[in-house]
Structure formats: C-alpha cells, structure tokens
Amino acid sequence: MFSEIKEECGIFGIYxxxxxxxxxxxxxxxxxLQHRGQESCGIVVNDMGLFTQHRDLGLVPEVFTKESIExxxxxxxxxxxxxxxxxxxxxxxxxxxxxxxxxxxxxxSYNGCLVNAMELKRxxxxxxxxxxxxxxxxxxxxxxxxxxxxxxxxxxxxxxxMYNLRGAYCLLVMSPRKLIAVRDPDGLKPLCMGxxxxxxxxxxxxxxxxxxxxxKLIRDLLPGEVVVAGDSGITSIxxxxxxxxxxxxxxxxxxxxxxxxxxxxxxxxxxxxxxxILAAEHPVEADVVIGVPDSGxxxxxxxxxKSGIPYAIGFIKNRYVGRTFIQPSQSxxxxxxKIKLNVIREVVAGKRVVLVDDSVVRGTTSIPVVNLLREAxxxxxxxxxxxxxxxxxxxx
Amino acid sequence: MFSEIKEECGIFGIYxxxxxxxxxxxxxxxxxLQHRGQESCGIVVNDMGLFTQHRDLGLVPEVFTKESIExxxxxxxxxxxxxxxxxxxxxxxxxxxxxxxxxxxxxxSYNGCLVNAMELKRxxxxxxxxxxxxxxxxxxxxxxxxxxxxxxxxxxxxxxxMYNLRGAYCLLVMSPRKLIAVRDPDGLKPLCMGxxxxxxxxxxxxxxxxxxxxxKLIRDLLPGEVVVAGDSGITSIxxxxxxxxxxxxxxxxxxxxxxxxxxxxxxxxxxxxxxxILAAEHPVEADVVIGVPDSGxxxxxxxxxKSGIPYAIGFIKNRYVGRTFIQPSQSxxxxxxKIKLNVIREVVAGKRVVLVDDSVVRGTTSIPVVNLLREAxxxxxxxxxxxxxxxxxxxx
Amino acid sequence: MFSEIKEECGIFGIYxxxxxxxxxxxxxxxxxLQHRGQESCGIVVNDMGLFTQHRDLGLVPEVFTKESIExxxxxxxxxxxxxxxxxxxxxxxxxxxxxxxxxxxxxxSYNGCLVNAMELKRxxxxxxxxxxxxxxxxxxxxxxxxxxxxxxxxxxxxxxxMYNLRGAYCLLVMSPRKLIAVRDPDGLKPLCMGxxxxxxxxxxxxxxxxxxxxxKLIRDLLPGEVVVAGDSGITSIxxxxxxxxxxxxxxxxxxxxxxxxxxxxxxxxxxxxxxxILAAEHPVEADVVIGVPDSGxxxxxxxxxKSGIPYAIGFIKNRYVGRTFIQPSQSxxxxxxKIKLNVIREVVAGKRVVLVDDSVVRGTTSIPVVNLLREAxxxxxxxxxxxxxxxxxxxx
Amino acid sequence: MFSEIKEECGIFGIYxxxxxxxxxxxxxxxxxLQHRGQESCGIVVNDMGLFTQHRDLGLVPEVFTKESIExxxxxxxxxxxxxxxxxxxxxxxxxxxxxxxxxxxxxxSYNGCLVNAMELKRxxxxxxxxxxxxxxxxxxxxxxxxxxxxxxxxxxxxxxxMYNLRGAYCLLVMSPRKLIAVRDPDGLKPLCMGxxxxxxxxxxxxxxxxxxxxxKLIRDLLPGEVVVAGDSGITSIxxxxxxxxxxxxxxxxxxxxxxxxxxxxxxxxxxxxxxxILAAEHPVEADVVIGVPDSGxxxxxxxxxKSGIPYAIGFIKNRYVGRTFIQPSQSxxxxxxKIKLNVIREVVAGKRVVLVDDSVVRGTTSIPVVNLLREAxxxxxxxxxxxxxxxxxxxx
Lengths: 396, 396, 396, 396
What we know:
The structure is a homotetramer.
Chain A: E1 9-20, H1 22-32, E2 40-47, E3 50-57, H2 60-63, H3 66-72, E4 75-83, E5 97-101, E6 104-114, H4 117-126, H5 136-148, H6 154-162, E7 167-174, E8 179-183, E9 192-195, E10 201-204, H7 208-211, E11 216-220, E12 226-230, E13 233-237, H8 249-255, E14 261-262, E15 265-266, H9 267-281, E16 288-291, H10 297-307, E17 315-317, H11 335-340, E18 341-343, H12 345-348, E19 352-357, H13 366-375, E20 380-385
Parallel strand pairs in A: 16-19, 19-20
Antiparallel strand pairs in A: 1-4, 1-10, 2-3, 2-4, 5-6, 6-7, 7-8, 8-12, 9-10, 9-11, 12-13, 14-15, 17-18
C-alpha cells in the first residue's frame, strides 16, 4: 500500500556508437521508473569520454527541466537513476555516482542491497580510503577500482570485483568507452535489456522504461550475467552465472509497475495469480472483495475470480496527494490516511468485506484502513495479504 | 480521459459562531476537491469581520504551506476555491475574489458558466465600472454590489442579483458577518451542505470534501436555493426554487470524484450504470472490455457486466506525470501519450477490444489511445463513449 | 540610512510608433530604478492595443527572467513599475494596475501619495464601485473612468480627473493607442522625459533610468504638466501648470540615486551641498567626519570640505545583506545592525567624530549606529542630520 | 573591480567545550566573509562526535534559512565555508568537505591553491583512491588519511601531511573531538584567531568575521603554525614555522574586506597607502581623481591626498545587480557594464581624470569603464592600477 519499504532504486542506461540525444532517452526512461524511487534522481552523459552530470533531490520532472537536459548535451552513452533513501534524502548520496579513479572517470547506477557492505568499507578504510556518503555504490566503486590496476579491461575488473560482493545488486558501470550491465548471481533484482530502432542498446530495471522510448524488450539479464556494450559490439559474459533466479518477491507484489514484464510474465498477471492462490489457501465467506490501491487491486481481482465473491472498487485515492502534504494543526493528524483514501460507502455498508493488500511490512497503516471500512459500515472485514513480508531479501 | 474541458472549479466554505482553525478545514476541503481544478487555489479567512487571504497559481499542496496556513490564522468562517482556467492561468483571476464595496468587504467563491456575463459586463462598464480580470466572479460581485445599496441585507442583495444572472452558477458569498451559499435555479452545478461534530456548517461542491473533515452530508442544495449562515442560525430561502434539477451530465461522467454523492447517488454507481446502458444500446461482439483511466474505468466495468464480455485492466497510468513534463527534443513529441499511458500487451494482443471512455469532447486524444492498442496487437478496437458531449451546458 | 520610509515607487514608460523590444527597455529602466522600490515590480506591454502583463512580488531580477521577458513579447509601448509597500507586500496591489473599462484596457503606473484617496474611494463605492486592493492607483483608475464617458479622448478624461485629485502623484496612463505622462500640479514627485536614438520617447522617475538605455534626458516634466505620446506625435498640455515646484526634499536626501539629475542638479551635488550648509549652520570641533552609508556619504564629504575637518570612510557595509536575513537565535538579535555595518576602528578610536546621516525619520536605528562608534573607541560622537524629516509631504 | 579572479574562499570555525548554538555563530561568520565567495557555502556542526551538514550552491542567505540552521542543531564545534569556483559552480565540490575515514568522520574547510595537487592526486589514484570532485580539499583529505594510521593523533597526521603539501593553504580540520587550524608555511593566505566572551575559540579568514559575533581578535596565525583546540585546551605547534610571511598581495588589494585587520594593518589603510605610493611613482597632471567601486575607492583617496588633485565620487553602482541579471536581447549586451555602473557627468565632463583601479587581471573590463568616462565628456583619462597582477601566487 503506502510506501513502507523505501530503499529502492531504478536504473537505466543507453549505449550507441554514434552521438545522439541520449539524455532525452534516459530522462524518459527514469520517468517511467519513477515508481521505484521518488526522493532523488540523476543522469550522467558520456560524450566520447567527456562526462557531464545533473543530479538532485526531487522527482524527475522537478530535477530535470528543458534547460538542464540541454546542458547535459548529446553523447554516445548515458546512465540514469531514481532512488528512495529510507526517507532521509541526502544530497551527497544522489546517484549515478560519478568518480575519477586511476584509469579515468566512471559512473555507477546501482540498485540493490549489499550484504557485506560494512565489512568491505572497513577493509578499504584500513587501506586509506575515504568515503563521501553511505551508499553501497561507493563501496562497489572501490571494489572495482581495487581490481582495475591488475586488470586488462574495466569488464575484467568488474568480474573480479563481483567475487567480493555479496547480496542483491544490479549495476550499470559507465567507463569512458564502455557501458557494462551487471546482475547479481542470485538474480535478486530485475534488469532487462532492449534495443531501439536506431540500434542503441538499452538496459533498465523494468521493461516499462523500454516501452516509453519504443525500445523492444530483448530479455532479462540472467542471474550473474555481465553484458558489455562497446566499440566491438555487445558481449555477454556468464562467468558468474549458474544460480537459479531468486527474484525478490517484493518486485512482483510491490515495487514493479504492473505493465512491466519480469522473467517473461507481466507483473499484473503475476499479481492476479497471487490473489487466486490466496483465495485457494485462505478462503472466507464474504459479500464483496476490495483491494487497497494501487498495488492491491490486481490481487483482489484474482481473489474475486477464484472465490466467486463479487469484486468492487471500494476505495478512491486522492491522486493529488504528494510528498509535501502538511498538517495544519495537531488535531488534524488522524486525517492523514483519509486525505489519501476515501471509502465508497455503498460498496461496503452492511457487508462482509475481504480486503486484499499486497504487502504489510510493518502493519502500521493497515489499522487505519480497516477503521475506514468499519466507519463506513462494513459488518466484517477480512484482511488478506498477497505476499509474505519475510521473503524480502533485505530482511535476511 | 485527459483533461479536455478545463473550465471547472471547486468551492468550499465553512461557518461557525466561534473562532476556530477554519483555514485548516478549508485547506483539507479544497485538497479533496483538487480534481476539479489544478491551476490555482485560494483561501479567505474571516475573523469577526477581518479578512485575510492567500491565493496563488499552483496545486493546493504547492500554494499552501504550514506557514501560509498559520498566517491566515483562526476565524469564524472561511471560503476556499480551486480552479482551472482553460490552460491559461492568470494570477489576476485567482479566486476567492476578495473585494471591498460600499458595505465593507466581500469574498466570492464561484463555480459556473454565466451565459450573460458579457452583456452584464458591458452594462456595468457603461456605469463607470472597471474590471481587473475576466472572471464571471467579478461580474457577479458587481451584480450584488449594485443591489446592496437598496437592500436591507446582503442576502436580499444576492436574491435580487440572481434575477439578473443566467446560466450555471454555484456561489459562496462571505460578508463580514454571514456566509451565503447559492445554487442556480437550474441546478446545473453541484453544491451540498454538511455539518461538523462541533456544529460548524459546511458547503462544498462535492461530498468527498465533507468526508475528509468528518462532516456529515446533510443534503444537496436545491436548484435555486439560497442558504444563509449567520448569527441567527441557518436559513434556507427558496425564492428562486421551482425548476427541476438539470445537473450537468459532465459532473457525473467527468468532473466529480467517484466517491462523491450527487443527488443521492454515488458517482461511481452512476458511471457504472452509464456503462450498462451503453452495453444495452451499443452492443458489439468482442473478447475483452477495457476502460480509459481514470474516469472511464467504472463505465467499462458496467459495460462488461451487462454484456458478459470479460473486463480487464488494459492501461497503466504513470502516476508521477504532472503538469511540468518537458519534451527534450522535437522527435520525442509523439511520446506524450505514451508517457502517461502504457498498454498491457497480454490483455489486448490478438483480441477484439471494447474501449470505453467517459467523454470525447474534441476527440483529439482518442486517436493516439486507439493507436496504442493497435500497436500492442489488438485485432479490433471498438470505441464506446459513456456520455454525449453535446449535453454540456457550456456548449449551448 | 536603512529604509525607514518605505512607501515609494519608481515608474517608467516608453512609446514608439513602431513595434520593438519595449519589454527589454522597460526591464532595464525599472532595474535602474530598483532603489525606489524592492518589494514588487511589473511590466505591461501594449502591442497595437493588445496588452500583456507580468507582475509579481520580488526584485526586478527575481520577477523577470529571460523567459518572462520573451513572453511579454514586442510592442509599440510599455509601462513598468517598482514599489515598496510599507513592508506589507500584497500580491493584489502589484502595479502597473491593468484594468478594463468602457473604452477598453488601461494600464497605470503611479508614484505618489493622494491626500483625498479615502474620500474619493467612499464616493465611488456609493456609486457601486468595487475595489480589489488598497492602492491609490485603483482610485485614480476610477477617477479617469468616471470622466471617460463624457470626454472625447483619454487625455481629456485625465485632465478632468486631475481636478479631483489632491496630493503628490506622477502617473503613466497607457491606453490602447496612447501613453500619457502626468506630474501633479505641486511637482512633489519627480518625472522626466527623454528620447532614444530610434526616436522612442521615454518617461522615468529619475534620469538614471534613461542613461541605462542610452536615452538622452530632455527635461523634467513641469509641475502639472501632461504629456501625450500618440500617433500624432508628442503633445504637452499645461492646463494644470502654474504652481512652483515643491519637490519632496526626501527625493534629494533619501530616495533618488546620486547619479540622477533632478530639476537640473545632480542628486550627489545636492547632497554634498546639504552637507556644506549643515557644516555652516551646525559647526562642531572634531577630528574626523564620517557618513552613514550609502546616502549619508555625500553630505559627509560636503561637511568635511566646508568645516576643514578631515573626511574618512568609517563604516563598511556588507553588500550581500538582503531582505532574507535570518536571526538564528534570540540572543543574536542585537547583531542585526552589526551584520550590515562594521566600523573601521583605526578611523574613529580615540577621536571626536562627526557622524552625518541623511534622514532620521524615526531615529530608532541611530542609537545602534552611535553605539558601534562608541564600542570602537570614539571619544565623542556628534550626530548631524542633512534633512529635516518633517518636510516629507506624506507627513503633512 | 568586477570579479576577475574567482577562485577564492572564506573559512570559519568555532570550538567550545560545551554545547551551544555554534551553527548560528558560523552562519554569521561566513555571512561576513561572503565577499570571499558567492557561489556556494556550507556548515558542518559537530555535536560531541555527531556530524550534521548543510551545503549548497548559492549565497549564505539563500542556502541557509531559519529552518536549515535549526536542523543543524547545537554542538560544541562547527566549521563553515564560502567559495567561488571559477564561475563553474558544481554541487559535488561544495565545502566543507565531509568524509569518513578509518578513524571516523572529518570535515575540512580549505582556502588556498595547492601547487602539487595533480601530482598527489595521481599518486593516491595509483593506490586505489577514488575522487568525487576536483577540489584540493579532497586531495588534502587523502594526504591526512594516509598519515592517520601511523599517527597517534589527528594533529600528528596533519603535521606529517603538511610535508607533502606545497603552495598556499589555510585549513580547518574538524575531527570528532578536535578542531585544528593550519596556515601554510609561506603564509600566502590569511587566517586569524579570536575569542568569544563565553570562551569559545574562533578561526576565520578575516577579522571582520570575528567582529560580527563580538569575538576579540587575538592574532593572525603564523606562517606554518598549527593550532589545535580540544579537550585539553588550545595548543600551538610551530614545527612548520620559520618562513617569513608572503601574504598574497591580492588579499590586500582585492579579496579582503576593508574593515579586516591583516598582519596588524586595516586593509583600508593598506589600500590607501598603495594609492599614495602610486601617486608618488606614477604622477600625472589632472583635474580630478576617481576610483572604480568598490575596492578601488580607498586607493583613489590615497592618490588624491598624495598628489593634491581633488578626489570625487565619479561612479554610482546599482547595488541591486546580482548574479541573475538577464540580457533580454542581443542588442542589449553592451549595457552590461552600464547596468552596474553609471558615471556622474558633472564630475568628469571636460576634465582630465585619473581613474584608479585595484586590479586588472585580464584587463577586459577596463575598456568599457574608460569608455563610460569618455562618453560622459572626460577630456583625458589616465588609468592607474594599485597592484601588479603578476604578484598573485596562483600565477607563478
């Protein structure tokens, strides 16, 4: 329902042999990925080795104006990023991370959850490293830089560094001449590749970011796969492949956009399926099935179809509620859920209601939602959750 | 679908005998009415005759901050307003209109479409009047002021002025000591009244604005009814009543929020009903029924239920697309619909699709939407419109 | 010294028979007049009868961007305005005032202090008038409109209206086809006219606004003079002339920029002269003469030259202190003068100091300034004021 | 005159044993140093080891609001920074630099010009270091971190690191428990220390930043001196002392505020003296001496006194011209100097003028200034420069 897990990101990258409006493409791509992170965003453009960046706290349409896109200029590759930061936005942490190391500049767009980040950080600090922020991306930058001196190429350094990284990570590494896409060996986070009509190769967290720029989805990267786009074409390296994909269940039930295709399945279809399974495993006698908007709706439709109980739209969301909502006086605090959601009384009054939600990580917002139904006259409220929160990899 | 008719407003007012946080209440009220106007908004607070205002171009959460609400201060009554202005926002036209006339100050919140505005304007100008903006509200302010000198009370002036006004209008008139709510004799625009637990009387364009502050809906104002809230209580004057309500059909199919109750019926139910009628009157053989988000969805569900053709969600909306979206390069223009909507291919590929929309005023955006379906592989697309555009009163 | 009298304005207008970048010219003109008003500003462009405006609270470089100047477009005449509003900026009062009356549109830029504004306002209200703000400009708009119906031309209406106006006023009245400049019969406020190389005629509160656009100063308008610029050329009407000029003394000592020429004399020269007179009338034995920046410096130089006591720069101003300075904690309040001014100790320590200021309207800031000198070790501080505050016309 | 050398900074730090409003103190301090850098600023507060930062592009009163100062909170020490960045402001470079290294957090405020920065950078990169920006401060952070592992204390690491640094640098190093002030062995940049009434020790680039918070100036740091403020009091370490001070001449003639005391002399006095020397070395026969505002005025007064030629104020500066000035049309470009400066004709017309400026680094703006005088009717213009540009250490 309302953003309870906030550490999530969306990444996007594009590579071509020729200069073009890559900034515009990335802008559209991260706009389509906005649902994966609303606190900060950025783009780094690479024009034949010259890097230009624009990054800031805010939504994509707030951070990027016509002018800032023009300033980024044209280039032959670019990476972009959208991020949530656990509700504590910090300008020093905004990605893509852009650094200079011994072999030149490197930009990193990262989505993941590194299990051994603290351990690696300590190790690099003992070697004299300094850190500017608390992101895993900076740790990974050191991990790659460490290997670079003894490697013939940036991709060799990336492959070596991966032996030291543990956890969930999808990476786009942009060097002066190459764009490298990396998916962790467990495939915990999504990353797909596609192709534009002009031959550009595109990488994105979700396929909805390909649709927006008319790129065709080629396929998901395999768990552990490293794809290198450079002068000599596109190369797939499977040195770290082998594991079966263990895609984070939250991608399906919470993070991803319903129109994205993950592992061959449209997210909406997966969610509806989850609702059907829920109906089979946790049946209940009731008069109506309603979902919590937006991500609970598909599972509710699935629950309704499977159970034979009629589906209805029970809540209306105020689509203008943003991050800046203020609470003018103390006594108005209880309205915060009400401002976002309103019940349609006719749908629930006097009825036994099945309420389907997609995720209840902490459960704190479930209570006011159930209360809204009771106040509107529901005689019974049966809550059904379409995903077990303990499956989230960051909770391991 | 996407805002084609833009001249629409939402009005909200509150009256109490005692001073309280009326600004906070109006803020919540106009926030719930944001769907009726996104270009400008304002609040005027009346603290025992002392008027304070804050108005500007922008959404409610942009224009009002904690600080600006505090500056408005407490009072015993207040009115608020949200507006669209045909896409040409003009700071001089932002309402509530606050003027000073011979009997003191007066604030006006107005929603409507005055048929004889130009005629009245000309007449007042010949009498030496000057106009600061091009709103009907300023014309109405003159119409009331004209009668005020020869009237014993502000409500008497309002009732006399109504004989000169023709067309659709809902009005909140706040004088130093009274709050007067007016609905035009044809009842073309909605206006309801409610009551808070602390006894405050509330007027709003739609009942969803009462729900948000826990006010109970009393009833819609009758066509032609004038309700006066003042020291001596609440008085209903029916001098202009008599006409049967001719509520603008666009309120049901386009403007109002689905959870609002208009003339005793929830808007969502009315929309679903419209879809059922559409299925009966314009049947077609097809495989799936989908609606254009957001306002076409309910009619699509109704169409599906009546016709027996399965309903499905066929479009996903990017809920972060706002007014500030930029088009970095010429070649990206065609993406503008794509940025807002994405088709779920699995739902439509190879299928005969019934596409239900709520309103097609100019029809210009229907073509790209149909094209999206064709590109996604729909074998046939049958468009069904749940409301005839010629019914809109402003088109007479 | 620091802005004690805040109700002041600067006006600027330009007329040509041909379309050109008048908005850019007015922008430069009001930028040069910024010292006359920092709270709001605006420009109205008239392109052969089509009026376009941009007005807002803020400094000229804040309100006007490249984009907003471009939106104003080209035209054949334009008027601009900068204003202070007694420290209570109110968006409804921002000028130029742009209204529509029976004969079309009219824009007004006004600098003055109307003695009978309240009286006129009451009279118009009794005739049905409504007022949107509390500026004299709106009253004058009614005064002109009232005469317009019985006048053959806009200038005739202006001349008739002037019989009803009492007090200080300089006016620029822009009608669809004419630009009319008006100086009140007592000549209390300054207004000059000049000419550009391309033949454009320009009106401005001070000549420094002509210099910036390379316009040549022709002369000051006479007290009571009305100059009409239109298709048939430039016409001067002296129906209201006759009075001797009684230019507000504050123009010389406080408002005007030192490089402006008022009534044939550079303001700086007038200020220096005032210092010389001061030295003659109020001599004192001392070691050094210093002025309070910025407007007290010229008088201090005059005092020093006349008295033979050495002149020195005793205060340094922090030129980055703007309107938005914040006081982080209660205990820091006393720093507010210190943040703006710092004493150069070497100049005053152990010395008898003559401190020359230009105006002490309320005297409240004189005390901390004298204290700064004492803390820095001055043995004696003799204050000398170069203008008597009771001479300000708004204090009559 | 107008900012020609842009790479300059101001630094400020405060230390106390007890928690207090150090953020407010630093805010005032860097506000007084605003003339040393207008493109970005920042403050880092240390509350018993917990670091909080706020940094951004913009002037001090733009970046810091009451709210952001409150968010920084109280602490027992803090450092601040203002910077120019050669006209290419870059959010990644804003100081104070805040990093985490093996011994915890460290904040750095730096003013200088490191001669061997590129060399050191290369050396650290070969050891695996990554750089986030192109500031010397980050290089110095590595230089200190490198020594920290083999040092018993942070000050020992700083002293060792200094053997590797060459060029001009003043540093404030804030560790969890200490504040360390460093002046380079050649004393090229200014740094002084002072004491508040409550016992706080303060370090600042110029003494005007002490005045504003009522701190008493103790003395300048010696060239090479390191002062450590910590639990055990204030310690001065002179391991790197010995060189004679070679204060950058631009500090006196260009950077510093006239009321600051550098090496025992008020800057204004030094500037006046420079004007006297100039008059002795480069005499000329003329009628009037004028200075280019603001920094050329004192030298002009000195020139006038020494030469016996009368001094006058010849230019008026528009004090509202900021960084955001726009040029509406191509044809207006030539106005850019005129918008900032206007000549007082009476002062120069028909006269032989000595024009004194403080610095002519590139000389490009001298031409339009001389042109202004010629257009105003000066019969001769003799330019005199009070400082030789080749003396600037960054030009070695």
